[in-house]
Amino acid sequence: MKSSPQLVARDLFQSFRMGARQIEVLRGISMEIAHNEAVFLSGASGAGKTTLLYTLAGLERPESGTVEFEGRRLYSGGSTMQARLRNEKMGFVFQGYFLLPELTALENVLLPAMIAHRATRSDAEESLAAVGLGDRLQHLPAELSGGEQQRVAIARALTNNPDIVFADEPTGNLDSKTGDAIIDLLLNLARERNTTLLVVTHDARLAARGDRQLHIADGVLG
Predict the structure, then answer these.
(1) Percent of the chain scoring above 90 in pLDDT
(2) DSSP for 127-145?
(3) pLDDT tier at 131 (50, 70, 90 boundaries)?
(4) CA distance between the termini of the chain
(5) In whole angstroms, what is the distance from residue 29 CA to residue 160 CA?
(6) Which one has a higher pLDDT value, 84 or 106?
(7) Distance (Å, rounded) from C-alpha 59 to C-alpha 138?
(8) CB neighbour class for 60 (10 Å; exposed up to 12, middle 13-18, buried from 19)
(9) How many CA atoms within 13 Å lie on the side-chain side of 89?
(10) What is the three-class DSSP state of 113?
(11) Based on the number of CB atoms within 10 Å of its own CB, is 202 exposed (0-12), middle (13-18) or buried (19 or more)?
(12) Mean pLDDT over residues 169-192, rounded?
């Protein structure tokens, strides 16, 4: 029996105003993502990749259309329900790392776990070990390279054992060799933990490495 998709989007529209112009960013996008699938979303700068990712992740309400995650309709409940769903079920990795500079690697990884009252220090240590930073727990972000900071961000995203990880240009600030290593790490950890992965990238070479590649251009999927 075929299981139902984990994430379903139907007829997503999103636009914003720039001066007198109305810019259509998403134009009727529909898509499905299966459980444990690694999907890479590619497209040129300004094509709508990040807007689509944020909309699928419950971070940016669409003008029209629906998103369902594990049978639950996003954007239909209150903001508290949305926040709890994101914190318990989703992990996020961004291009800019978003580590707090005054906190150690371990403390940065523990932060969302403390909000959710779920994961423990040992979970955070295990996540950092999984990304190869078991010996850098007490280092501040400024004492880590860009690649190491992104590994901390990945450990943070995985500590609550999310069902899905959304990664927005996770290699955008890294050289190609380090970027390749980060994609290797994301793919390997997702497969080990049976976690679904949705990665936005402008790099067509990296986008070919997932189970499936989607391309967005002019607000539609090709």
Answers:
(1) 74
(2) HHHHTT-TT-TT--GGGS-
(3) very high
(4) 29
(5) 30
(6) 106
(7) 31
(8) middle
(9) 16
(10) helix
(11) middle
(12) 94
Element (H, E) at 22: strand 21-33
Query: Confidence class of residue 78 from pLDDT cuts 50, 70 and 90?
Result: confident
Tokens 């391309």, residue?
215
- Least Cα distance to 156 among 102, 218, 114 occurs for 114
User: By mean pLDDT, which of 41-50, 79-88, 93-102, 137-146 is the weakest?
Assistant: 79-88
Cβ atoms of residues 200 and 167 within 8 Å: yes
Predicted pLDDT at 117: 66
- In which residue are the tokens 């609550």 written? 160
Determine contact, residues 153/188, Cβ cutoff 8 Å. Answer: no
Q: Cβ(13)–Cβ(207) under 8 Å? A: no
Give the chain's length. 222
The Cα angle at residue 159 between residues 130 and 121, in degrees rounded to 5: 90
**pLDDT at site 1:** 47
Query: Would you tell me how many other CB atoms lie within 10 Å of the CB of residue 139?
Result: 16
- Looking up tokens 């001066």, which residue turns up? 19
